[in-house]
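Objective 1.3, modelling of assemblies. Example input:
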Amino acid sequence: QVQLVQSGAEVKKPGASVKVSCKASGYTFTSYDINWVRQATGQGLEWMGWMNPNSGNTGYAQKFQGRVTITRNTSISTAYMELSSLRSEDTAVYYCVCTVTTAFDIWGQGTMVTVSS
Amino acid sequence: QSALTQPASVSGSPGQSITISCTGTSSDVGGYNYVSWYQQHPGKAPKLMIYDVSKRPSGVSNRFSGSKSGNTASLTISGLQAEDEADYYCCSYAGSSTWVFGGGTKLTVL
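Predicted structure (tokens):
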């Protein structure tokens, strides 16, 4: 079955960067866009950006422009989301999501990123 | 982009129907038929319940339905069940390959 498996929890200091991975299985990785969505504790969902794994084209929410980079390694069916200049407000669960329809169909299990000095 | 507006909470008794609204603008909800709804139980990843305003993915109960009028989309759950208690989020395409979520609605089954 279609599945997205993300890397484990991270603890980072303010100002550092974090890179979260998302390994796809059960389908052809280059067939569907990958999006990243985050959720701070007790808060709502926030869309961060997307990538077409086939072309490598990306797009980012204005809020994260210049701080977020989404990449991929097609040989291992894995997408990555790197967020730089971390601050305490970036503490959240980060999800990768596969877009099969025109919505966020398949979600990874989430990766907790904690930013603390 | 501003988040779409949802009521913070709604409630209903088992067997009843409830509706959750999601208000945006002509640049998102009103401009495209790409509204989706997600159910999220505590500690779990969200689950797609409705896409393209009113389509149900395979496996989603037909008790869940979606609609849209102007800049407001709605999710209706009929025949409320205890397991429907969760947070619900709407999402809309906002143009230029961007998406925006609603703030979320906590559904309590009394």
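The mean pLDDT of chain A is 97.
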